[in-house]
Specification:
The complex is a heterodimer of chains A (190) and B (178).
Chain A: H1 2-23, H2 25-46, H3 49-64, H4 75-101, H5 104-112, H6 114-117, H7 120-133, H8 136-147, H9 152-159, H10 163-189
Chain B: H1 2-39, H2 44-52, H3 54-75, H4 82-91, H5 96-99, H6 102-108, H7 116-120, H8 124-167, H9 169-177
């Protein structure tokens, strides 16, 4: 009797899990349709291939476990927001680690050279550092507009704001980044 | 009957709305152009001001620097197999049954492909040339036919006038009415 119950339980368990897996096929579809854009955005934010893979994996892992395996209403919005947040926390962690490891004098010496000012890698790293410090609403827009290259209409839908608001946020973000970049330059000159 | 009237009213409303939105779009475009011409970075007085104001100069340099850094970030290429590797890593943490699906196997070997717009962008100049040629041909055809009609009417009038002068109005009317 007990054996029979156990068998029924196993069959029930198998059918339930199969149904769940069948329903989770949309994860692979999402990966197929948005994977390329997502990898491009993550690459531009992080600039490191291993970090890109980690952030990508984390994004889809979170998607698979969203409310116990349910499908979010707007998959694209969910994926891009999770990926953006993951990338920024990784970036912040990396910056903190770099600060901890490198001495202040060494950093100052490298930053002082005029060749560095137009050095693409140095510029990119500085900008990444400042993007990570931007307020969330501005950071989201700059990441989706300039790094993921989405249209303002798409950004509006993802962030649940109007197109005009997205434009204003982008403008503000650029202004703030420019001010920070300028301050850094002034500090170097002092 | 009531439904037909309602449909008519709706289509009329749609048409008026479309017309209004077109007008609105035109006004907005015109305003944008006017503002850009007078207040844009290329306006003469702005250029003169920037050349003499150190503060604005610095601001412009900083914005340029941000744009330069963004362009550098965008132009940095990644390896072609990055998408493949990222997919493989992400699929590796999904459920076993999902991992074994044919779609998952496809995703593990997928390569980044340019978008349709990017693919077609190399044909843009030729497509533009073809479109321009077609437009010119159409215009020529329309122009030639309308000129032919005008030419025929004018010619007929001249001949009619000649007949009126030479043989009289009654006879000319008789000839040309037949």
């Amino acid at each position: 009797m007990f054996g029979k119950t156990a068998n029924y339980y196993l069959i029930w368990d198998f059918t339930v899990s199969a149904a769940v897996d069948e329903r989770q096929q949309w994860i692979l579809s999402a990966m197929q349709s948005h994977g390329q854009e997502l990898v491009t955005m993550l690459w531009r934010v992080l600039g490191n291939e291993q970090d890109v893979c980690d952030a990508y994996q984390n994004t889809f892992l979170q998607l698979a476990h969203y409310k116990g395996g349910q499908k979010p209403e707007h998959i694209k919005a969910y994926i891009f927001r999770v990926a953006g947040n993951t990338a920024v926390s990784m970036l912040r962690h990396r910056i903190a680690e770099k600060k901890r490891l490198s001495t202040a004098i060494a950093t100052r010496k490298t930053a002082l050279s005029p060749a560095n000012e137009l050095d693409s890698k140095y510029l990119q790293e500085t900008l990444r550092c400042y993007i990570a410090q931007l307020p969330e609403h501005l950071r989201n827009v700059i990441m989706l507009r300039d790094l993921a290259e989405l249209s303002y209409a798409q950004i509006g839908r993802i962030l649940d704001i109007s197109t005009a608001t997205a434009r204003v946020y982008r403008c503000k973000a650029i202004q703030l980044l420019a001010v920070w970049m300028g301050k850094e330059r002034e500090e170097k000159q002092c | 009957m009531l439904i037909t009237n309602k449909n008519k009213r709706t289509s009329f409303c749609n048409k008026s709305q479309n017309g209004r939105s077109n007008k609105c779009r035109r006004i907005r475009a015109w305003l944008h152009k006017a503002i850009i011409n007078r207040l844009g970075l290329d306006a003469n007085w702005v250029q003169n001001h920037i050349a003499n104001c150190s503060r604005c100069n610095r601001r412009l340099v900083n914005v340029g620097k941000v744009n330069l850094a963004l362009s550098a970030m965008k132009s940095q290429p990644h390896k072609l197999d990055l998408l493949m590797r990222a997919n493989t890593q992400a699929i590796g943490v999904l459920k076993h049954s999902l991992r074994k699906t044919p779609k998952a196997q496809q995703l593990k070997v997928i390569q980044p492909e340019p978008k349709l717009f990017e693919k077609c962008s190399k044909y843009t100049p030729s497509a533009t040339n073809v479109a321009a040629c077609i437009a010119i041909l159409l215009l020529m055809k329309v122009g030639i036919f309308s000129s032919m009609d005008k030419f025929q009417i004018q010619g007929q009038k001249v001949v009619e006038q000649y007949y009126v002068n030479q043989v009289g109005e009654d006879l000319a009317d008789e000839v040309f009415s037949a």
